[in-house]
TrEMBL record:
InterPro entries per the UniProt record, alphabetical: LRR_dom_sf
Name used for this protein in its record: F-box domain-containing protein
Length: 356
């Protein structure tokens, strides 16, 4: 019964040192004191986005049978079947559990396909409309926005929203008063009248819609979904440098491979237009070479070529501090590794305050 004399604060410190969910689950069975603290961590952030519906169903059953666990959940990621293949009983189980997670702050929901229109987004909006939690971050790659209007009307604390192919917010300035970051596919769908600080958007030749956020925007991620021979990555860098020179974090990413690969180009003079740039991320799948000024192309299939390109960009941007760091002696220290996800470096979702 030694554990009965351990103060809860000490148990919390012990649990904070546990690294894996399996170890936390073992602690839950150690004693009632450890159980409370371990459950607090174990159920704080639940990621089921890569799990089968069977595992989602099992989790829902556990929460339904132990309602005291539902209030511990503050971050939840789900992958759900689309309507035609979503069993009605499973849908109601998930809906009831969502409603019981009253302290939920971050929610990410995805399905087999990103909703690209009214017929493609899930119409099971009741799953959210019956919930009373107030989110701070919401990634909606499942529900069609028109089916969760009532849910949106209650979200007065939502600061980060990711939703695809929706014009629902473009003319509704009264909705989501705390919104400061959005992720969408089309610039025409960006919400007007908001002091947006972070935007993740599809790459388009016309960047005029971004200018309305010029005084507040600090982070911009441009996602190229298809190859446009008339508007290259080099053109995008030029457009951002000239129209948004005060941007702090800039990311250019290609979401999938296209054929054929291309060569991109920019200049030192263009990069020097950025006055506050701290991080610059390039995630290229269809660019095999990059040219700066009239120098020989940097081969992006070669580690040395990537290193040299990064060095050249760093030299052009004195404020840049990402991946390369400038020492007091003016030297450059390089950190390199293979295999990374764009979100790991992106400053959009995890900007320093996240439940994950």
């Amino acid at each position: 019964m030694l554990s009965a004399r351990i103060p809860p604060e000490i148990c919390a410190l012990v649990c904070d040192e546990v690294k894996t969910p399996g170890e936390l689950a073992l602690l839950c069975r150690t004693s009632t004191i450890f159980r409370a603290q371990a459950q607090r961590l174990l159920y704080h952030s639940i990621n089921l986005q890569t799990c089968s519906m069977r595992k989602v169903r099992s989790w829902a059953v556990v929460i339904a049978r132990n309602t005291q666990l539902a209030v511990l959940v503050q971050a939840l990621a789900l992958y759900l079947p689309i309507d035609i293949s979503f069993d009605a009983l499973d849908a109601h189980k998930v809906g009831r559990v969502l409603a019981s997670c009253t302290n939920l702050k971050e929610l990410r929901v995805s399905g087999p396909d990103r909703p690209s229109g009214f017929l493609h987004g899930s119409n099971a909006g009741w799953m959210l409309n019956n919930c009373f939690f107030r989110l701070t971050k919401f990634e909606n790659l499942y529900f069609h926005d028109d089916w969760i209007k009532y849910f949106y009307s209650k979200q007065d604390q939502l600061s980060v929203l990711v939703t695809y192919n929706s014009s629902y917010f473009s003319d509704r300035q009264h909705l989501l008063p705390a919104l400061t970051a959005v992720g969408m596919t089309q610039m025409s769908h960006l919400p007007a009248g908001k002091a947006l600080e972070r935007i993740e958007i599809g790459l388009e030749a016309d960047m005029l819609p971004l200018l309305q956020y010029k005084s507040t925007l600090t982070t911009l991620n441009l996602v190229r979904h298809w190859h446009d021979s008339q508007f290259s990555i080099g053109h995008a860098i030029k457009a951002v440098a000239e129209s948004l020179p005060d941007i702090v974090h800039l990311g250019l990413v290609e979401s999938e491979e296209f054929l054929p690969c291309s060569q991109e180009q920019t200049s030192t003079a263009m990069l020097q237009l950025f006055s506050r740039l701290e991080t610059f991320t390039l995630s290229m799948l269809n660019v095999d070479a990059f040219v700066i000024d009239e120098a020989p192309p940097h081969d992006l299939s070669d580690a040395a070529g990537v290193h040299d390109l990064s060095y050249a960009v760093l030299m052009a941007c004195p404020t840049l501090a990402s991946l390369f760091t400038r020492s007091a002696a003016g030297l450059v220290k390089h950190e390199s590794r293979t295999g990374f996800g764009f979100e790991e470096f992106s400053m959009f979702w995890n900007d320093g305050s996240s439940e994950w």
